[in-house]
Amino acid sequence: MGKTEEKKKNYTKREVTDFTEGKYKFQLFGRWLVPRTILPLFYKIEYIGRENIPQDRNFIVAPNHISYLDPFVTGEAVKKPIAFMGKKELFENKTLAFLLDRLACFAVNREKLEVSTIKTAINVFKTNRWMLGIFPQGGIRRNRKIEKINKGFAAIAKQMKTDILPIGITGSEEYNWIPFKGKLKIAIGEPISYNQELDDIIDEWGSKVAELIDYTYVKDITEPESKQNLKEHCNLL
Questions:
Q1: Number of neighbours of residue 204 by Cβ within 10 angstroms
Q2: Which of 30, 50, 94, 116 is exposed most, by the fewest CB atoms within 10 A?
Q3: Residue 3 burial (10 A CB sphere; 0-12, 13-18, 19+)
Q4: What are phi and psi of 72, to 5 degrees?
Q5: Are the CB atoms for 165 and 60 separated by under 8 Å?
Q6: Among residues 157, 136, 153, 137, which one has the least CA distance to residue 58?
Q7: Coil, strand, or helix at residue 228?
Q8: CB atoms within 10 A of CB 110
């Protein structure tokens, strides 16, 4: 029991020393294998807006989430090491947990923004090399709508005083296995300032990503209590 709890805790909390050169090289291998080698056999891949990527500061990488390809194509688009948050349930599978760990991913509770999550985000940026990757919609959404946005990414941005890079991904809502038949688009928007109210950050991310990939943005105005809870968690630090 104790060993199991310790292992899960380790997947949630990351120290600066956990973001190693070996994990960066493993990410580079994944970027070579998936977006550069395998995907071009099935998709024409288009990267748009790379000029919007900040080169002089850290930022939060925030794409929409439509398939398991997203972390790989996002990494190739940004061309920086990214520590992605992944739902804690993914780490319950030992094999998958091993691979995610090698890719520098860490576990997060999607239902509640925890202090350990914010502390890990702090440690990511302390490396002065790694970016923090968050899928604001949480799980995979293939209905071509930007909706049901989790609030935590905005709270973390404000806590870290870090801008958010919005990224729209479309084309792999359904996997294509016919050679050279699919089209995959990764569009990068201008950074979103953290120096706004939480709701304004969330609204700007949703509307920008929807515009980048011609999705429908469904604004959520029903959760005022969530915003207060996020503020309380941030104030715990």
A1: 18
A2: 94
A3: exposed
A4: -70, -45
A5: yes
A6: 157
A7: helix
A8: 15
Q: How far apart are CA 114 and CA 93, in angstroms?
A: 22
CATH architecture of the domain 2-49+58-234 equals 3-Layer(aba) Sandwich (3.40)
Q: Which residue has the tokens 């190693």?
A: 20
Cα separation, 33 vs 14, in Å, equals 26
Taking the chain, what is the end-to-end CA distance rounded to the nearest angstrom? 29
> Could you read off the pLDDT of 117-136 as tens digits, one per residue?
889 989 999 999 999 999 99
| Other residues' Cβ atoms within 10 Å of the Cβ of residue 133 | 27
Q: What residue type is assigned to position 222 of the chain? A: T
Displacement of CA 50 from its chain's centroid (Å): 17
Interacting residues of 141 by C-beta distance below 8 A, sequence separation 6+: 64, 65, 66, 147, 148
Please give the backbone phi and psi of residue 84, each rounded to the nearest 5 degrees, phi first: -85, 140
Going by C-alpha positions, the residue among 168, 134, 166, 132 that lies closest to residue 153 is 134
Torsion on CA atoms 59, 61, 62, 65, rounded to nearest 10: -170
Residue 132, helix vs strand vs coil: strand
Mean pLDDT by 10 residues, the chain (237 residues): 47 91 96 97 98 96 97 97 93 92 90 82 94 94 95 92 97 96 98 96 98 95 49 48
Task: Give me the residue spans of the domains in the chain.
Answer: 2-49+58-234
